[in-house]
Amino acid sequence: MNLKKFVEDNGFSDFPVGLGGCRTSNLSFDSCDYDLFVFDEKSEPSSIMKFDDEFVVIHHASLSETNSEKLLQYHQLDIIHDESWNLRMFISQIDKKHVSLFSDFAKNCLIESQFCCQKTKESIQSSDAFAPCWQKCASVYLANAISSINHLRPSPSHMLDVFRKLEKNPINEHISILNQTVGIERATPILLERMLKSTIGFSDLVENNNHSEIIQQKHDFFVKNSMLSDCYFYFVFVNKENYVKIKNTLNRNQDLIHILKIAFDVEADSNLLEQQSEIIQKSCNEILETLTSA
Questions:
Q1: Which pTM value belongs to this model?
Q2: Which helix (H) or strand (E) holds 90?
Q3: What is the rounded distance in angstroms from the CA atom of residue 233 to the CA atom of residue 188?
Q4: DSSP letter assigned to residue 77
Q5: How many domains does the chain have?
Q6: Whether residue 232 sits in one domain with residue 132
Q7: What is the pLDDT of residues 89-101, one digit of tens each?
Q8: Which domain covers residue 56, as residue numbers?
Q9: Which residue, 130, 289, 156, is CA-closest to 227?
């Protein structure tokens, strides 16, 4: 893809622009989109465009960013346009401190995972229907933490495949907890088709930016290549991202549970949910202890 032409055609050449995501690594699939970071200092949500029959996700970014999660998205960014050289200097600074950024992000994810576990338990006690959604989020945050500890940016399409290839060590042993708590063993073509429809519906409600077209493309690729577990995890990851965007307004959106039950493929057994939350919390505590004693 001629990204320089895309930048020019869409009026982004007034700003530093870089390509990130899996397209800058050796992980990308044909179904993967192009993550373009436009440093226009805007705080607008991401938008999605099509160019040369490929999806391009436009992320608005800032050269004064301090959030470790966002900074890691800029780590090893491929520069497309940078007349001022400000982006080159910014990326150089990030590359110098990327180890500490990965560590900071991992700790934040572990704390968020514990928070979600607590929300799961509280929701069970209050008979809140969103309890299993919080548990799914806790699992994804744990996955993000393990990925970051291995100096890998979280990538929902590739994370399971990467985890299968990681060396065995005390941290990576906790990957087995994900297999126990995410639900990937239930993945079948019929279930994934149902999850797809609800995941698209939830994305349209929360994002409303044509992300649903990418979700459909990913599903088709995964199923075609018999990567059912990877597809299941991808759906859970995407739904988690959108769920946390509206977590503070759930009490005003109780009807969402109908779409989320299918999108997340939730567990109805409250006893099992509580057990899974305990397991995830235990993993988080053990990993945090390992990080702080390192």
A1: 0.95
A2: helix 86-96
A3: 12
A4: P
A5: 2
A6: yes
A7: 999 999 999 999 9
A8: 3-96
A9: 156
Query: Burial level of 31, CB count in 10 A (0-12/13-18/19+)?
Result: middle
Using the 8-state DSSP alphabet, how is residue 167 labeled? P
Which stretches of the chain drop beneath a pLDDT of 50?
A: none
Output the pLDDT for position 242. Answer: 97
Cα angle value 46/50/53 (rounded, 5°):
145
Closest CA to 33 of 227, 235, 218, 225: 218
Alpha-carbon torsion 123, 133, 153, 53, what sign?
negative
CA–CA separation, 279 and 178 (whole Å): 10
Taking the C-alpha atoms of residue 86 and residue 213, their distance in angstroms, rounded to an integer, is 34
Contact 68, 105 (CB under 8 A): yes
Q: Quick one: pLDDT at residue 29? A: 87
* CA dihedral for 5, 11, 13, 17, sign (positive or negative): negative
The helices-and-strands tally (H runs, E runs) of the chain is 12, 5
Cα–Cα distance measured from residue 239 to residue 199, given in angstroms and rounded to the nearest whole number:
6
- Whole-number pLDDT of residue 146: 97
Instruction: Provide the pLDDT for residue 294.
Output: 64
- The C-alpha R_g of the chain, in whole angstroms, comes to 19
SS3 call for 114: helix
For residue 37, which phi and psi values (nearest 5 degrees)? -105, 115
**Among residues 47, 71, 42, which one has the least CA distance to residue 58?**
47
271 token code pair: 């006893």
Do 32 and 109 belong to one domain? Answer: no
The Cα 256–Cα 190 span in angstroms is 22
Q: Which of 96, 130, 145 lies at the terminal end of a domain, its last residue?
A: 96
Q: What are phi and psi of 225, to 5 degrees?
A: -100, 15
